[in-house]
Design brief:
This protein folds into two domains: 106 residues; 39 residues, no CATH class. Helices cover 57% and strands 8% of the residues. Helix 3 packs across helix 4.
């Protein structure tokens, strides 16, 4: 057992050791405590091939054809969950190696693998459901705001005394947000006479 002097000395020394200072040192040591990588911040951990993850992501993008940032994020979520599921399968195979674990630890490890597998599969299913729900809403919104001649432009009423022309009611255009906006007179032309009182 450590003495009080040793404990105090360890605490003083720990305050001096603050870890790597340079970006290169921080990058080198960021995976030091990595055991299985299932909770890693980065989808690709050391020992895995970034190019293979990129291929998986590109295949999913080609399959889902994401149209906006929300859909791209959902496709990336699916890719990360599938990548972690494959990592889990590789690590599960190591549990069955002779002498890898004692019998009491083996049952607990297999149970944890099962729970993690279920969580990742649910994450994939939920992301797919979110994608389909979001896409349905997005397409319905686009259908509402569909650009056609009848639904996006209202003609004004033209009045023309003595060879001049002026709009009694200005034409309107419906924007992509669905709001009708009046086209200003300045855009339509200079019509000095108007039937409207000043």
């Amino acid at each position: 057992m450590a003495t009080i002097k040793q404990i105090r000395a360890n605490r003083r020394n720990a305050q001096k050791a603050t870890g790597p200072k340079t970006p290169e040192g921080k990058e080198r040591t960021r995976f030091n405590a990595l055991v299985h990588g299932l909770r890693a911040e980065s989808a690709v951990i050391p020992g895995e091939d970034q190019a293979r993850f990129d291929q998986l992501l590109e295949r999913l993008k080609a399959a889902w054809l994401p149209q906006d940032d929300q859909e791209k994020d959902l496709v990336e979520q699916i890719a990360v969950s599938q990548w972690k599921l494959a990592r889990l399968d590789r690590n599960e195979a190591k549990l069955y190696a002779p002498g890898a674990l004692e019998a009491k630890d083996f049952a607990l490890a297999i149970h944890r693998v099962y729970l993690t597998q279920v969580r990742l599969e649910r994450s994939i299913s939920a992301s797919i459901a979110d994608m389909e729900r979001y896409r349905k809403i997005r397409l319905a919104r686009q259908k509402e705001l569909a650009v056609d001649q009848n639904g996006t432009y209202r003609k004004g009423i033209l009045w023309g005394p003595e060879g001049g022309h002026s709009y009694f009611v200005l034409p309107q255009v419906r924007g992509l947000d669905g709001v009708w906006r009046v086209i200003p007179r300045e855009v339509l032309g200079d019509f000095p006479q108007s039937p409207l009182p000043a």
